[in-house]
Amino acid sequence: MRGIVTCPQPVAGEVGAQILEAGGNAFDAGLATAFTQWVSDPFMCGPGGFGIGQIWDNQSKKLTVVDFATQAGAKVQPDMWAKDKYTRSEVSSIFTFDDLRNEIGHQSVMIPTSLAGFAEIHKRFCSMPWKELLAPAIAQAKLGTKVNTALETFYQKPMPGTTITGEERVLATAACTKAFLKPDKSLYYVGDTIPLNDLSNTLDIIANKGVDEFYRGDIARAIAQDMESNNGFVTLKDLQSYKPKIAEPLWGSYHGTKIAAVPAPNTGMTVLQLLALVEPFNLGSMDHNSPEYLHIITSAMSLAHKDRLEYNGDPDFVQVPVREVVLDPARISQQQDQIRKGIMTSGRNAFEKGDTTHVNVLDKQGNIFCVTHTLGWASGVVTPGLGFVFNNGMNLADPAPGKLNSIAPGKARGTNMVPTLICDSKGTPVTAVGAPGGAVIVSAVFQAIVNLLDFNMTPTEAVSASRIHCEGGKVFLEAGIRTDYTNQLEQYGHVTSKEPLALHPMMARVQIAENIEGTIRGGSDPRAGGGSVTKAY
User: Fold this and answer.
1) Is there a cis peptide before residue 244, judged by omega within 30 degrees of 0?
2) Among the listed residues 537, 509, 350, the one whose alpha carbon sits nearest the alpha carbon of residue 433
3) What are the pLDDT digits (tens) for 357-394?
4) What was the pLDDT predicted at 346?
5) Beta-carbon neighbour count of residue 521 at 10 Å?
6) Which of 285, 310, 348, 384 is least surrounded by Cβ atoms within 10 Å, i.e. has the fewest?
7) CA–CA separation, 440 vs 301, rounded Å?
8) Could you report the per-residue pLDDT of 300-345, keeping only the tens digit for each?
């Protein structure tokens, strides 16, 4: 076998497998898959988005974090919304104004960075030409994208933590309405094909002229003009000056196994904190999802998510005390005592789901591509003629000055993306784990790692097992968890909410790929319409 691709979109996974079969490496296949995800899921990801990736080059034995976090545009002012009334949603961490200024429309948009991140990966790691890796996505865009159940649901229902449907997002700008509704402004439904001619043309230009066209050429000027004409904050200079960061991973361990997580403003520290909190409780000796097991991981989630909201931010602007506070062994020990004593924490009842996607690719050479990329919740902004939706990163920027995630020009917002790598006994990364799904990503990736390491589950079992999520308020449990166990969890002092679905789409869609001693296999979460494990031969 040449390798494996795991991602939520089967068509995109096939593209990655075909690139591997054509002689490409994991990085070639990963980019080709990600480009095609832009076409398959245009409200989950795209050129208007941002992301984070871990790249393991097995030949050089080097692990690199490519961080293409979005940043606020130069025209924002720290106190511009401070006196205006807003709320913070109880079911997510979104700052909400009555006029939805930071949720939809041009003022919700931060700098689009995905192309810059992908170009950096291509320059450093890929073996195939940029144009060839974009070709499958362009061909798919010319055919259009077929509406699946996830996209139909997006159109018809509000995102958790928000009050507007996908249809209302699409109606936010005339260009988005034209691109993603029928000519009579009615919805597309499952099986319908959405024509993506403008997106196809944009990708074709980028394929032939390169990424500079997006950040410094005619596309950049069109974006900047659109933003200026509609009181947006992103400028041409923002586009011209943006560069992704090359960073070191954040290292931790679990029962002697090395874990590579991503640094702030992404929340890899929270995954490592969760693993550290539960390590002494020997979860593997318990029945999976038993009341005692659920109590321990619920308590750990409550503590770790509280710290995530309190301490994560852009390290270029604020101090993020990862080793000093969040992962400090003495403090971890104190929190473990809280779990033993049954001390509950308070927090937000959060079921936050963003428009995000993920892709893992492993090849037979041992290379790993593990990347999460997103639009946030999708702004509903399309620059006329370009055919893609921009992010709405401003909805997690704190309107109050002087706070960890307060608004500032060039400042990145905190994200919940956590592409994570697990190492073998020699310290070599062999397993990639990641997911789309907002704050629930952290809980889902944590549980998947526990499933792999404590319960020796296969990747498919690890992503399919029933899960919970808690951020200090209610404990959300999937219907597959026994009711009597839920009742016993209440006796521990937790407030529970049993969800009606055995595989709830809000629980994030975890993707796993591994190469254990030459055996390559993967698992793709069956939630929200399923995913894709595609082998390349």
Assistant:
1) no
2) 509
3) 999 999 999 999 999 999 998 999 999 999 999 999 99
4) 61
5) 18
6) 285
7) 10
8) 999 999 999 899 999 999 999 999 999 999 999 999 999 999 887 6
- The CA distance from 363 to 383, in Å, is 37
Instruction: Assess contact for 382 and 235: CB atoms under 8 A.
Output: no
CB 430 within 8 A of CB 515: yes
| Residue closest to 362 by CA, chosen among 428, 415, 426 | 428
SS3 at position 141: helix
Instruction: Decide the pairing of beta strands 87-88 and 429-434.
Output: unpaired
Which letter does DSSP use for residue 286 in this model? S
**Cβ neighbour number for residue 343 with a 10 Å cutoff:** 13
Question: DSSP letters of 393-451?
Answer: GGGGSBSSTTSTTB--TTPBPP-----EEEE-TTS-EEEEEE--STTHHHHHHHHHHHH
DSSP string, 143-195: H-EE--HHHHHHHHSBPTT-S-BHHHHHTTSHHHHHHHS-TTSPPP-TT-EE-
Q: Which tokens is 22 given?
A: 């054509």
Tell me how far apart the alpha carbons of residues 117 and 359 are, in angstroms, rounded to a whole number.
14
pLDDT digits (tens, 9 = 90+) for 397-440: 999 999 999 999 999 998 999 999 999 999 999 999 999 988 89
Q: What is the fold of 249-352+417-526? A: Serum Albumin; Chain A, Domain 1 (1.10.246)
Q: What is the C-alpha to C-alpha distance for residues 245 and 347, in angstroms, rounded to an integer?
A: 32
| Strand, helix or coil for residue 267 | coil
381-395 as b/e, with b when 16 or more CB fall inside 10 Å? bbbeebbbbbbbbbb
Counting every residue written for the chain, the total comes to: 537
pLDDT digits (tens, 9 = 90+) for 190-236: 999 999 999 999 999 999 999 999 999 999 999 999 999 999 999 99
How far, in Å, CA of 461 to CA of 63, rounded? 27
Exposed, middle or buried, 256 (CB in 10 Å: 0-12/13-18/19+)? Answer: exposed
Question: Quick one: pLDDT at residue 351?
Answer: 47
Q: How far is CA 398 from the centre of its chain?
A: 20
Task: Domain ranges for the chain, please list them.
Answer: 3-246+356-396, 249-352+417-526
Which of the residue ranges 83-92, 440-449, 495-504 has the most confident prediction, judged by mean pLDDT?
440-449
What the block records as the tokens of 523 is 């698992």
Q: Which residues pair with 376 in a beta bridge?
A: 355
Lowest mean pLDDT among 452-456, 506-510, 512-516, 520-524: 506-510
